[in-house]
Predict the structure of SAM-dependent methyltransferase.
Amino acid sequence: MILLVRDDREFLCAPGEELHTDLGVVDVPEDVEAGETLETHLGEEFRTRALRGPDLFNHFERTGAPMMTKDIGLIEGHTGACASDRVLDAGTGTGVLAAYLGRLGADVTTYEQDSEFADVARGNMELAEVSENVEVRTGNVLDDIDDLTEAEGEGLGDATAGESEGFDLVTLDTGDAPAVVEHAPDLLVSGGYLAVYSPFVENTREVHRTARDVGLSDVDTYESIQRRMDFDDRGSRPSTAGVGHTGYLTFARKL
């Protein structure tokens, strides 16, 4: 897939597709590449652009409110997620977090309870070109917890005998996150990270308490707030539009 961009407008297109706009019709070549200029039949120009993370966020099919990019950035930054990581994710939803982690090169197994949401997420993984390293499973991660703790990493890498099995990172965006956190010491490798997102402080408090109770270290919770700045002739100030708060993030680590 490729983006066709004109000013502040953008269209997601497949190679070989015919795009109809109010500026005319664009025939997208089969061999289209990023950085090209395409003209409509009326002579109006569009630039082509490859999809990056923020573009996927904007063009994924949504099944609810996706995790915001600012929260994903905090998760990546606080946990040091990288290409060699094995990740267990629960609460796939639209799949934005799973896709970002997959594009880092991590091997991700993500659980979504709603079968229709899971199907949408699989389509989004194809758009993000991470289907090979992001597996979307339908179901509740708690139902598979015994298998995951007994054979962590199976199918997620090439760990050989004697190597530490387990997940380098567990990410949760579910209402039953505290129950999953109880199993975090068995799921994580030594030094592995837990990251839990919740829009509600009650759930967050329970996650924080549970992480401490099961012996995880470096347990910290942050409220995630971001404000866009407005600049005009009158002066500069944080924007009064939009939502600054999206949720709380709890991080913890296995010793």
